[in-house]
Amino acid sequence: MGCGISSSMKDKKSEKALKAALVIQNWYRGHSAQLKTRQRYALTIFQSIEYADEQGQLELSNFFSFMLENYTRVLEEDPELVTHLSDSNIQDKDRQDYWVLIDVPDSYCGPRLQFPLTFTDIDLLIEAFKQQQILHAYYVLEVLFETKKLLQQMPNFTHIKTSPSKEITICGDLHGKLDDLFLIYHKNGLPSVSNPYVFNGDFVDRGKNSMEILMILFVSFLVYPSDLHLNRGNHEDFMMNMRYGFTNEVLHKYKLHGKKILQVLEDIYTWLPIGTIIDNEILVIHGGISESTDLNLLHRIERNKLKSVLMPPIPIDGDHATEKGNKVGTTITARGIRTNGSLSEQLTKHEWEQVIDILWSDPRGKRGCYPNTGRGGGCYFGPDITSKILNKYQLKMLIRSHECKPEGYEICHDGKVITVFSASNYYEEGSNRGAYIRVSSGSPPRFFQYQVTRATCFRPLYQRVNAVESRAIRMLKERMISQKTDLIRVFQLQDSSKSGKLSVGQWAFSMENILGLNLPWRSLSSHLVTTDKDGNVDYMSSFQDIHIQKPVKEVQSTLIETVYRYRSDLQIIFNVIDANHSGLISMEEFRSIWKLFKSHYRVCVDDSQLDELTERMDLNKDGSIDFNEFLKAFYVVHKFDKLSKSDTKVL
Q1: Which family does the entry's similarity section mention (predicted)?
Q2: What is the pLDDT of residues 12-29, one digit of tens each?
Q3: 398 pLDDT band (50/70/90 cuts)?
Q4: What is the DSSP string of 140-208?
Q5: CA-to-CA separations, 121 to 36, 185, 510, in angstroms, rounded
Q6: Which one of 189, 446, 544, 621 is separated from 415 by 20 to 30 angstroms, measured CA to CA?
């Protein structure tokens, strides 16, 4: 009997332990699910702001066309601006001039490449870049010219064959994240005849090592031209580079020869293939497709005519590129004004639209094909469009990149569309994993995930999510403060009782209406505003811990917000105008450009206020302002930083 009691007690203890384990397990699962939800919300914020910025970039491209059409004195007073905005390709005949001017001193300690390049040079570059060495401009330009020569021989779509014993690796966006490329090469092996790769665009911008990534990829391409394949992405574009960092990176690393490097790169972009077809079954393109995608046409177009994917060819009279279709004259093209040009020198509008769809489009679950309102370029395409295009060209699958995914890849449209994104920690440390895919004939794709870890590898999950979430909220508040005046106006219109409060629904509607960001505002309200016991929002609390620093106190808030909101656009415009890189812009020139900018963007700002501001920023009263310094005077101050020191230090 005693044994029976003992056994019963043991059973009860085991039952209690099991219940306790289940409670802990359920709590952990619920806690993990909450953290994942918060992480998804943070990624949604990052992505919405990123796509809104891309819309701004497209609008800026339209402004350049508008400026060239309306800046009546540009031809007479600033011919250098016209030259800078018009096509300025570096021809092979200029190649020798570069080499005459560039000398590699004996004191240079970086990698020295030996042409023709071999596998050893790939390894040499990787080891040098791991030591944060800079490749000399002499070798950079030589690599670029050799790459261009080889790319000119490539078709628009590269056709590749695999076998059960020979897989090919497909990598998505890298965006200057050199450590991700190092990790891919470490895990998956260096490119070789037996280990081919496709890099599916967006090698540059955002990250700080875009030049190093380009050099490794281009040298690998020169060593293995039949086994390393490069597709063009929407960031292989000089206009995108000016906003998203690559232009500044090159000019910073190569102060003497940076401008020449950028000019050659601009030409190389146009020669990058726009897609890869594997085993006549898998289409690999950067963005996506539309209902009108014509692969036969895309195989035939002269891709090098597309100087910028952001600016369509615009004939000077709106209908014809010249007074007569085949007559030589002056045209406004994708880059600006070209003299003595002809219609044959640019893509047709239909051809341009075909390439835009390839580089900018995104898949969605909704059927049909409709405008990509998130990015402002390309389209959203549904599963029916995928089936239609794949069936039309006897293809089985579309592999694309272009969108950051939490796990580094995503499968949609009944397994027919795969997104692969190879830049881990894209928005913030810990925000997402990277991935690459291996495919071979007769086998399903294999996915490999990774995440470059530094400080975050020692942090628990909740701290990593807190860091990502705090950064996302910070960016969102900066977006809000840039349109404070418009938000307050809408808040007050809805606040009929003048109580200073709105319902959460009214507040959320106002936020989406003014900011144009499709976000879960109700869920985010707890991070952005204070609410009373009845759940009503104190709408002025939206701005309580953040403001824009004013270089001149007397200037109206509307002007400050406008300059801050468009600071990236204005900086790009200034850098284009400042052809000699003097860092200065005349007051008169700035006023002329501002009037056009204000007209095109429909900005309501009192010119006298702007005049007062620029006068005060002309510190030495010489009639010029340092415009980059001018823009730096407008920055956001966060009174209460949500990211505590305990969240940022390495544990």
Answers
A1: Belongs to the PPP phosphatase family.
A2: 767 777 777 777 776 656
A3: very high
A4: HHHHHHHHHHHHTTS-SEEEE--BTTB-EEEE-B-TT-HHHHHHHHHHH---BTTB-EEE-S--SSSSS
A5: 43, 15, 57
A6: 189
Mind listing the pLDDT tens digit for each residue in 484-528? 989 999 999 999 999 999 999 999 999 999 998 889 999 899 889
Single-letter amino acid, residue 598: K
117 with 39, same domain: the answer is: no
**Looking at the domain assignment, is residue 639 inside a domain?**
no
The 3-state DSSP class for residue 522 equals: helix
Q: Please state, in angstroms and rounded to a whole number, the distance separating the CA atoms of residues 138 and 101.
A: 9
Task: Quickly tell me which residue has 């209690």 as its tokens.
Answer: 16
Q: Residue 264's domain spans which residues?
A: 88-313+348-453
Q: Where are the beta strands (DSSP E) in 279-386?
A: 282-284, 329-332, 337-341, 362-363, 369-371, 379-381
Q: Which one of 235, 286, 402, 413 is the catalytic residue?
A: 235
Residue 497 burial (C-beta neighbours within 10 Å; 0-12, 13-18, 19+)? exposed
Q: How far apart are CA 569 and CA 642, in angstroms?
A: 29
Q: Is 84 a catalytic residue?
A: no
Same domain as 419, residue 430: yes
In the predicted model, what is the mean pLDDT of residues 107-113? 93
User: Amino acid letter at 552?
Assistant: V
Tokens of 158: 């590269």
Compute the distance between CA of residue 363 and CA of residue 405 in angstroms, rounded to an integer. 13
